[in-house]
């Protein structure tokens, strides 16, 4: 396992096992045929170099699932997307990503951190679990504005 610090999180990642998982997993567009997912897959090639390097550092192919959601179109024509991915590894230290909105509430909101123009975080709670995903596993979550590339 390789130890990496990203923002306030220090994580251990098995990059080879993570890459192997994504090598076998399907493209987002093979599990969903909506325009939002198709646009996201196209936009992966247009991510800023620092974000492409982050995905590579973690062993993630961003074109493959986790989960992707389009939240809204911004005034400048870009779209706000959220996505999460799974990484073979564990969190060594860092803030809790999902915090209750008020004391005793079951509703939570993320405490993302800014990183090269995107918001991101890590958590141990997995929203989805895919068959063949090695354990231990953590979840990487990211929000970013991306261009609309579909005609």
In a few lines, what is going on in this structure?
This protein is of the alpha+beta class and 151 residues long.
Total helical elements: 4
Based on secondary structure, the structural category is: alpha+beta
Query: Share of helix among residues?
Result: 10-25%
**Globular, elongated, flat, extended or rod-shaped: what is the shape?**
globular
Q: What number of domains?
A: 1
Distance between the termini: 42 Å
Q: What is the rounded Rg?
A: 15 Å
Strand content: 35-45%
Largest sheet data: 7 strands, antiparallel
Low-confidence stretches: none
* Mean pLDDT score: 88
Number of strands: 9
Helix-strand topology string: EEHHHHEEEEEEE
Explain what this protein looks like in three dimensions.
The protein is of the alpha+beta class and 151 residues long. The chain is built from four helices and nine strands. Helix content is 22%, strand content 38%. Strands 1, 2, 3, 4, 7, 8 and 9 form a seven-stranded antiparallel beta sheet that branches. A two-stranded antiparallel sheet has the order 5-6. A hairpin with a 7-residue loop joins strand 5 and strand 6. It is globular. The model has no long low-confidence stretch (mean pLDDT 88).
